[in-house]
Design goal:
Length: about 280
């Protein structure tokens, strides 16, 4: 199975499908990431705040996979926005790496008003070779525009909550117009919704002989979105990677797009309300 690459605005490329480790217990992280690497995943999404970078690092070290074949993302937590160089050094130490492929400002925290400073520091970290690419997460358009006003560098991605119940295409297309690729977090609704039971999802699942989760992942991929579903179950983790043997047709794609609930579909915190 070959995962397509998406080209980033700095010339680097990211595997479109990866494995996310939010809420994966630090004690199980090594085992699960090793399992994911065995299945074929090469893109891992972690963050300093997840507390499991060491487990990701042990899995990388024990996998025997050459570093250049892996794409590792981690994120700068909110209380380190004015201290990003030291924060990335700590993450690199835990990951056992000299560089990450992608370093993200985790949330803008607009009330703190330090995200432009954080972004300037990330630009320095990219120049120093400690992050091959830099991007943001949970940014609204106004936050992106502020970065562009104050610096010369545009983030390569914006990682946002995105699933059939929360889509915001108008805003996401505006990011794409700025050459910012979209990464989906909570792509399956974090397993907290009834998405897996809706006919718009179960009917194509039955037709193609796949699971509802595979249909949703396929919908993201066909929308050109970068996606890294999380599962702590080895069978599901393998299933989530097995999404290149079928394709949704136009009407099946449209039916899922019609499930959008707008703001009501948001399961996590609104970026404007996260300030700690
Ligand atoms: P997700 O949408 O990937 O949902 C994961 C849950 O879906 C699992 O715990 C399980 O309950 C269910 N699931 C997964 N595969 C399944 C399958 N095949 N069949 C049935 N159920 C299945 O949620 P997530 O983990 O929150 O998001 C994915 C990744 O996004 C995270 O691991 C993390 O890397 C990233 N993330 C980033 C932010 C951010 O603020 N930047 C926030 C949350 C998550």
């Amino acid at each position: 199975m070959t995962v397509p690459n998406i080209e980033l605005n700095d010339g680097n490329a990211i595997p479109q499908l990866g494995f996310g480790v939010f809420k994966v217990d630090p004690d199980r992280t090594e085992e699960l990431v090793l399992e994911a690497l065995k299945v074929g995943y090469r893109h891992i999404d972690t963050a300093a705040i997840y507390g499991n970078e060491e487990g990701v690092g042990r899995a990388i070290a024990n996998s025997g996979i050459p570093r250049e074949e892996l794409f590792i993302t981690t994120k700068l937590w909110n209380d380190r926005q004015t201290d990003a160089a030291a924060a990335l050094d700590e993450s690199l130490e835990k990951l056992g790496l000299d560089y990450v492929d992608l370093y993200l400002v985790h949330w803008p925290c607009p009330e703190n008003d330090t995200y432009v400073e954080a972004w300037k520091q990330l630009i320095g970290l990219k120049k120093a070779g400690k992050a091959k690419s830099i991007g943001v997460s949970n940014f609204e358009l106004e936050h992106l525009e502020k970065l562009e006003t104050h610096t010369e560098e545009t983030p390569v991605v914006n990682q946002v909550e995105l699933h059939p119940y929360l889509q915001r295409w108008r805003e996401l297309d505006a990011f794409r117009a700025h050459k910012v690729q979209i990464e989906a977090w909570g792509p399956l609704g974090q397993g907290k919704t009834d998405l897996f039971e809706l006919p718009e999802i179960t009917e194509p699942a039955e037709k193609y002989g796949v699971s509802p989760a595979q249909v949703i992942i396929r919908w993201h991929l066909q929308n050109g979105v970068i996606v890294f579903p999380k599962s702590e179950n080895p069978e599901r983790l393998a299933q989530n990677f097995d999404v290149f043997g079928f394709a949704l047709d136009e009407s099946e794609m449209a039916a899922i797009t019609d499930l959008d609930l707008g703001e009501e579909g948001r399961g996590g915190t609104h970026p404007k309300e996260m300030n700690y």
